[in-house]
Amino acid sequence: MTSQVEKIKVLIADDHQIVRQGLRTFLELQQDIVVVGEAGDGLTAVEMSRQHEPQVVLMDLVMPQMDGVEAIRRIKTLNGNIKIIALTSFSEDDKVMTAIQSGASSYLLKDVTPDDLVDAIRATHRGEVRLSQSVTGKLMEQIARQSGSESPDPAIYLTAREYDVIRLVGQGRGNQEIAESLFISDKTVKTHVSNILRKLNLTDRTQLAIYAIKNKLA
User: Fold this and answer.
1) CB of 132 within 8 A of CB of 112?
2) Most exposed among 81, 86, 123, 144, judged by the fewest C-beta atoms under 10 Å?
3) Are 175 and 162 in contact (CB under 8 A)?
4) SS (H, E, C) the chain
5) Where in the chain is the domain with CATH 1.10.10.10?
6) Any idea what the Cα angle at residue 50 is, between residues 47 and 55, rounded to 5°?
7) Full-model pTM
8) What's the distance, CA 5 to chain centroid?
């Protein structure tokens, strides 16, 4: 008997109907993805997130009624388990940082290839981070400016084990993959990640992945 594939529930939020239709058409070709709804503005996106409880939301940042950043913030307040991918045309520093700070797990530009978008949806659903290459450097530079200094040398702050963890986070590995690779428990991985964030004065896993890439630890 063929086992049923568990599908990732995706909500598409974009004010352009043609964009939504294009995304839906491609995503519904995937055996492990189902589109549970479309929203043409931020307010509708929040309400549909409440109704349909998607696992991943593709969120445009510039929309009527309520912009994507505020919608991200409200959705994460509503349900912190929902993963959000900011999918936008903008790579400016302020928009990237604001979206990440509001709770976006990944940040992609709309010129991403369909295959890379599907990969990002699956990875983000697993708790990993996906960022367009063009925005990674800009975001890391802004993090450095906000901290008032250049990124610290990880050798000063990290233990050998923490160094291993940050390297794997930078490669986009999830907690379970890290645990299996290092022969430790998921709980231990979470503890290491928490300690690393504290030591490097970072706020979340996304910033940690960017830090690893920026400092060539990945």
Assistant:
1) yes
2) 81
3) no
4) CCCCCCCEEEEEECCCHHHHHHHHHHHCCCCCEEEEEEECCHHHHHHHHHHHCCCEEEECCCCCCCCHHHHHHHHHHHCCCCEEEEEECCCCHHHHHHHHHHCCCEEEECCCCHHHHHHHHHHHHCCCCCECHHHHHHHHHHHHHHHCCCCCCHHHHCCHHHHHHHHHHHCCCCHHHHHHHHCCCHHHHHHHHHHHHHHHCCCCHHHHHHHHHHCCCC
5) 151-214
6) 115
7) 0.68
8) 23
Distance CA 107, CA 123 (A): 12
Q: What is the pLDDT of residue 135?
A: 66
Q: What is the mean pLDDT of the chain?
A: 84
Are the beta carbons of 12 and 35 closer than 8 angstroms?
yes
Cβ neighbours for 91, distance < 8 A, ≥ 6 positions apart: 109, 132, 134, 135, 138
Kindly indicate whether the domain formed by 8-134 is annotated with CATH number 3.40.50.2300.
yes
Per-residue pLDDT reduced to its tens digit, 135-155: 666 665 665 555 555 554 544
Q: Say which residues have a Cβ less than 8 Å from residue 52's Cβ, sequence separation at least 6.
A: 9, 11, 36, 37
**Average pLDDT of the segment spanning 169-173:** 86
Query: Residue 113: what residue type?
Result: T
